Amino acid sequence: MKRSLPFVILLALLTAGCATPQNHYDPIESTNRVTDKINDGIDRISLKPAARGYNAIVPKPMRTAVSNFFDNTTYPNTVLNDFLQGKGGQGFSDLFRLLINSTLGVAGFVDVATPMGFERHEEDFGQTLATWGVGQGAYIVYPLLGPNSLRDTPDMITETATDPLFWAGFFLAPYVTIPVTVAKYIDKRSRLLEASNMRDELALDPYVFTREAWRQHREYLIYDGHPPVPPASKSDDGWSEVDFDSEDSPAPETSQPKTRISMAKTAEASTATTPAAEPHVAEVPVASLTNADGAANPENGHSYIINLSSYQNEAEAAARQGQLARLGIESEIFTVKIGDITWYRLRNKNRVSAGEAAQELQRLKELSGIQDAWLELDDKRK
Question: What GO molecular functions are on record for this protein (predicted)?
Answer without folding.
Answer: peptidoglycan binding
